[in-house]
Design a protein that fits this description.
Elements lengths: L1 H16 L4 H23 L7 H30 L2 H15 L9 H11 L2
Helix pairs in contact: 1-2, 1-4, 2-3, 2-5
Length: 120
């Protein structure tokens, strides 16, 4: 859900309103893509599969680093570059989308996003 909401609302808006953050947005799309792929792979695996624990570890490490980057670097840039009204509008749209966002990696909207990231 996290990657879906950010990819659908926050990233396109930041990309449009703060073109200097284009590189940050593109990197975040790719980090989300990797996380989505790992989650989909894990959902299809048995917890006792040989590589299950390794995939979980990689997912946790990548997600932790991604969150630290967002909180320490990216979000401060966005807060500095956008006014309060823009931030509130983006937040409201994200909260609204959360109601219908995919809850698991096998939902069609989640799968479509993964495919769209690989085949533009």
């Amino acid at each position: 859900m996290h990657t879906y909401i950010e990819n659908e609302v926050m990233h396109p808006e930041v990309r449009k309103l703060l073109p200097d953050l284009e590189g940050d947005v593109l990197e975040s799309y790719e980090e989300h893509h990797v996380a989505d792929l790992l989650v989909a792979e894990l959902a299809a695996m048995s917890p006792d599969a040989e590589r299950f624990d390794a995939k979980v570890t990689v997912l946790i490490e990548n997600a932790s680093r991604h969150m630290d980057e967002e909180e320490q670097d990216w979000f401060p840039k966005v807060r500095e570059g956008l006014d309060r009204k823009d931030l509130q509008e983006i937040g409201a749209r994200m909260a609204e989308l959360k109601k219908t966002a995919p809850r698991g990696p096998a939902q069609p909207s989640a799968l479509k996003k993964a495919v769209d990231a690989v085949i533009p």
